[in-house]
Specification:
Length: about 110
């Protein structure tokens, strides 16, 4: 996808991160409500539970949310190839961090 659609690449990387973030919430016995702003709530939950040592990847996660929203809803955003590449890398990093956290919670 990265070779032919930058916007779709960022969208899919963000969606992957969102689903992994929800898995992290589920591992804590929490469940997000489907309501306006629930993506922000999910990101805040992850930030609270992963701590400051992963603040960089979580800032990128939130930036991706904003960029995605602008491109998707306002139709004024532009996703560059560099944005798309960075989104894939950020998603890979986040999945690794979240997996490690979830695995550490297993009995």
């Amino acid at each position: 996808m990265l070779e032919f659609d930058d916007e779709a690449t960022l969208q899919q990387a963000y969606e992957a991160m969102l689903r992994v973030a929800m898995a992290l919430m589920f591992s804590h016995g929490e469940r997000p409500r489907s309501q306006p702003g629930h993506h922000i709530v999910i990101i805040e939950f992850v930030r609270k539970n992963l701590g400051n040592e992963h603040g960089g990847v979580l800032t990128l996660f939130d930036n991706m949310r904003r960029k995605r929203n602008t491109a998707l809803y306002d139709d004024t955003g532009f996703i560059s190839h560099s944005d798309a590449e960075n989104a894939v890398k950020t998603a890979q990093d986040f999945v690794a961090v979240a997996k490690k956290h979830i695995d550490s919670r297993k009995p």
